[in-house]
Amino acid sequence: MPPFALVWRNLLRRPLRSVLTVLSLAIAIFLVCGLRSVITTLRAGVENANPRRLDVLSASGLFVELPPNYQEKLNQIPGVEMTTKFQWFGGYFRSMKNFFAQFAVDPETCFAMYPEMKVPPEQLEALKATRTGCIIGDGLALKYGWKIGDAIPLIGALHPQPNDKPWEFLVVGIYHSTNPAIDNRTMYFRWDYFSETLKSGGVEPGVGVYALRAKADADIPQLIADVEDRFKDSDQRIQCATEAEFQRQFQSMFGNIPLFLGWIGGGILVAILVASLNTLLMSMREQTRDVGVMKALGYTDGSGVRAVPLPGDVPVPIRRRTGAVPGLDHAVADRARSRDDVPRLSRARRDLPDGGGDLRRARSPRGPRAGPACAQIARRRSAAGTE
What we know:
The chain has helices at residues 4-13, 15-47, 70-75, 110-113, 121-129, 138-144, 191-200, 220-230, 243-252, 257-286, 288-296, 301-307, 315-322, 326-338, 357-360, 370-386; strands at residues 53-58, 80-88, 91-92, 101-105, 117-118, 133-137, 151-156, 167-177, 186-190, 209-214, 238-242.
């Protein structure tokens, strides 16, 4: 391999090109890693789903609400251990750019259904005792600087207050999720506060999703069939799916995002590969004469090829490495810079001082390949002069 000094000088030969190449590689790696992290996050909801939890929603779609009395009927189905309900609130804090997820839930069953959300018992009791209370994720608290006891006014874009005022919530607890499938930037508040407020304005509340947990010995496929069969003749038909399947269907609403991001990452890799190959070819073309100089000094073909991908000024470091005489160095190098055809480099020997006498002194232990080559040239020149 070429010495480190040669490598460093080659890099400095085209500093702008070297900097741009390094920056392009760094940006490409950053983008690919970022895309992979997004794909991993999207798949976390499916891979970390609880197999005993099922989600029940309207057969017409996620945005069609179910009647609140369905919860009692779900509890009566054999194999169901517990149920809870979720209703998307769709509000925002002060402006639309401060949007985050909010759900109206049953405080008695929601956190029991999802034990991955760690909440101190005293904070759960505070939620049950405070009508306007809410529990927020630690990620949400960190983003907005909220703490227990802070008031959060939310503007209900999807469910406005009957008096057109903001909804008032009081932070009574902060949870932390140990499951990547459950976000730490969500707010949960009491269902009865949500329901009673809407009813005061003449609006009947609905439920977006029912979550139920199956018993340990329940047959999950049979339980799903029983749940769907229970409401097949109802005004609002439902569909039941495992938590993993629900997450997969929810992601599919936005298209096959993992595949799309994967293709983008592949395109970035191909683009940076083509750019790097183009840079390498430019470097090889610029060093055509430099390789000829190296071969004239006695370097093998392999040494020249290994030096090609390192764009730089080859002759000067070679002089320090081989110990060749200044007359040969300057003559060959100057001739290489003034000619495009490598074979004519041999004519530079006519410019050597002292009738080629310095060539005999080119035998140097530091240049095992350069010394014999130069001595052979000197013997041929001497023989020609004698004749």
